[in-house]
Design a protein that fits this description.
The chain has 204 residues and is of the alpha/beta class. Helices cover 30% and strands 24% of the residues. An eight-stranded mixed sheet has the order 4-3-2-5-1-6-8-7, sandwiched between helices. Strand 7 and strand 8 (178-184) form a beta hairpin. Helix 4 crosses helix 5 (70-78).
Length: 204
């Protein structure tokens, strides 16, 4: 089964709707390497409509311009892009298609496709939220910026049950950005205060 990996830039207070004013000052070679590693996990990008419009409005021109980011722009152009949209779309960016059927069924089918080695979701908060609720996200790869954004859409929406996560890797960058890779895990057993009170500080 192909892994579904979400990759997000996120603030310390959980905002995943990035603002260039707090994001770009922290983008360095370490973050660039981390982003490259995330994209190398997949041969399919799963993208929400807004994220797709943002990408398609910038990366083809960057590829054509031949600048420092042209090779990454070409990688994005070459990869298969599956766009989550309720409406038919006409694409000008190569290797783009609209998701077939409802999101959950379509992603389940993509995961089972033997030709797909990995599915990466860059940004696309609403898509990630729906797939988290359905238990279809295998990894959350977060680049946590040392800033409280204080406004913007957060990654985790309100719900009845918590998501329990296991840390599989961490890395700190000189900028203060922390890279954290989580995978979903089972909830720990129920524990009462009486069972942990022996761990409370003894005081001075």
């Amino acid at each position: 089964m192909a892994k579904v990996i979400s990759t997000l830039f996120i603030s310390a207070d959980g905002v995943a709707e990035i603002d260039p004013d707090w994001h770009f000052p922290y983008f360095d070679e370490n973050m660039g390497r981390a982003v490259g590693e995330d994209y190398d996990t997949a041969n399919v990008l799963l993208i929400g409509r807004e994220t797709y419009d943002s990408f398609a409005g910038a990366w083809p021109d960057r590829e054509a311009a031949g600048g420092d980011d042209a090779s990454f722009a070409k990688q994005l152009g070459d990869v298969r892009k599956v766009v989550v949209s309720r409406q038919p779309l006409e694409f000008s960016w190569r290797n783009s298609e609209v998701i077939k059927g409802d999101l959950i069924s379509a992603v389940t089918a993509l995961k089972a496709d033997a030709d797909i080695r990995g599915i990466l979701i860059p940004g696309s908060i609403s898509v990630v939220q729906q797939l988290l609720a359905a238990g279809l996200v295998d990894e959350l790869r977060l680049l946590v910026h040392p800033v409280a954004a204080r406004k913007g859409r957060k990654l985790f929406d309100e719900g009845d049950a918590p998501y329990h996560l296991k840390v599989t890797a961490t890395e700190s960058f000189p900028t203060g950005v922390i890279r954290v890779i989580y995978s979903p895990t089972e909830a720990p057993g129920t524990v009462s205060y009486d069972e942990v009170k022996d761990q409370v500080p003894t005081g001075s």
